[in-house]
Structures are given as C-alpha cells and as structure tokens.
C-alpha cells in the first residue's frame, strides 16, 4: 500500500507540475510595487496579480479578490486571461513554420487559405503573411461588426469556429492599401490561425508541442475548456456595464468568449509562466537569432514611433523602451513587458474589463503608469 501511495504522489507531481517559484523577500522592487498593487485594489480593481523577474530574482504578489461574491482571495497560482498577448504565441508558431520551410513570409495568404476563406477577404491575393503578422494588411476588424458584439453578449453559448469570425468581414473593403501602414486588427491573427491549421492540421496542438512543452509551461492552456483547466483556479471577471463604477460579475461570458477565440486570443496562464514564455522567446529558446531579428523589425504607428514587429509590441515608458504585448477583454486585462535597460520582466493581470469605459479606469491607468515607471528604475 505504501508503494502505491508513493507512486500516486509521483504521478500527481508529474501531472500537476508542482513547480514552486518563491519571491525574494529582499527584492529591491518589492516594497514599491506592493504599495502600487494595494492601491489598485483600493481604487476599484477587484483583484490584481503581479510577477517580476530580474537580477534580484522573482517577486510574486496578488492583492484583492478573485471572486467578490464569495470573498475569495486571488492567489499567485491562479490562471489569468492573456487576451491579445496570445498573438505573440501565434506569431511564434507561424515563425517556427517559416523556419521549417513550410511557409514564406512574403507569400500571399491565398497560397495557404482555403478558397472559401480567401474569397471573404478583399484583395486577399495582395496580402502577405508578413502583413498579417505586423498588422499592415488593411483587413477590417471583425469585432467592429455590431452583429458580433450582440451575439457575444446576448448569446454567449454560441460556439464560434475560426471561419465564423472571418464571415463578419465578408464583402467589406480593405481599410487601406496592403502594406502601406500599420493598424492593429484582430482579424489578422484569426487568418494566421487558419493558415497554421492548413499546414499543421491543428495549430493549437502545434502551439502546445512547439512552445508550451519546450519551455516547460505546465499551467498554460490554449483553446480552453473545463476539461483542460479542471485542476486550476481561473480568476473571475468583472465589468462596469453602465460606466457608473458599479461592477458586475461577467465570468461566464468572458470565459465563453475566450473558449472559442483563435489566433488573436484564447490563452490562460499564471503570472510566472507568462514571464517564462517571453523570457524564453527573447533568450532564443524558441526561434533562431535571424528570425528574432525579423520579429523585432518594427513598423511605425501614426506618430511615427516604432510600434509592432511580427507579433511583438514595442513601446516606451517616459522614454524607456520595452518589448511585449498587452491584452484586454470585457472582463480582464493584462500586460506583459520586458524592459531591456533594467533587464526586467513584468506581467500584471487584473480581473476588470478594459475594453469598455469605466470612471475607475482613470485612477487605474495612473497607477499602471506608476508601476511601469518603477520597472525602468
């Protein structure tokens, strides 16, 4: 019996991936960011989780509630919605296929998409894979379609397939000439997921095998379902429906929405594993150096500043540069950043929606900027 118990424990450790990451109690940023995180909660954010990794090691901290109704505290091990940060994972998958010689970045997307999908995209033969990756395609935004928004909110059980999102732009003209400028569009990454499906048969499995497993990400999930994340605690989600500062639990709609999103969204993970992904990427554990140079070839925004590479964002905080990506949803928001000047990684997740206006956001944004500034010093 003793041997059976020991074997069971070993199997559980293998399955659950009990990897302990401890905060350095003497981390130089600990006291400063702790104060900021507590202020976020005091100013209306239900819960917030933060991870930092730099030369002082790890700092993990969670404040506030995962679930207001049950007064459940948020913990460092909880899962959070990555939202659009998932685009970086999708881009890595496409770039790995490029490295394997299974696609070329300058090829037109019609070479890889089924005709019925290509026919829904205006001037698809003039759009390249690279244009999808760096948002210079001119393809319209699918979630600007009122029908999509009403379906999501009124019928959250709707099981979307990737092609269903593309149907929302069927018959719509391009917003601008392909390759002429940068304009962020979620549709680009849904199309990339369809391209990857055509090559791999299942781009979700390809992402798991080529990204999650090599980096040892045992608490990162794509195309989520209750069956996949049954052993994990996923933070609840809230939004300010009427922009009056009153929060409502929108967990069901948030989860249903993310369950069916592909390419542009669809990943949940812990704060530490979000950092381990970006760190692994920037340290060359996923892509060749020459491919990373392509990924970090920036296109400029309307202000003429470098904004986006091939699935990776570029920006600055008070003149200090960072690389990474942000994500926002109806019931969650997050930011994944690497600050090269301080060699510091940071990921923060909050469980309040960031894509609709709330008067709460003004103070939260102020505190966010204060946090970012702390990361550059």
User: How are the strands of the largest sheet arranged?
Assistant: 3-2-1-14-13-12-11
Number of domains: 1
Report the span from N to C terminus. Answer: 56 Å
CATH superfamily: DD-peptidase/beta-lactamase superfamily
Helix fraction bin: 25-40%
State the CATH topology.
Beta-lactamase
Q: Number of DSSP helices? A: 13
Low-pLDDT sequence parts: 1-18
Global mean pLDDT: 93
Oligomer state equals single chain
Portion in beta strands? 15-25%
H/E element sequence: HHEEEEHHHHHHHEEEHEHHEEEEEEH
Q: In CATH terms, what is the architecture?
A: 3-Layer(aba) Sandwich
Number of strands: 14
Structural class: alpha+beta
Biggest sheet, in brief?
7 strands, antiparallel
General shape: globular
Class, according to the CATH hierarchy? Alpha Beta
Question: What keywords describe this structure?
Answer:
36% helix; 13 helices; three-stranded antiparallel β-sheet; 377 residues; alpha+beta; globular
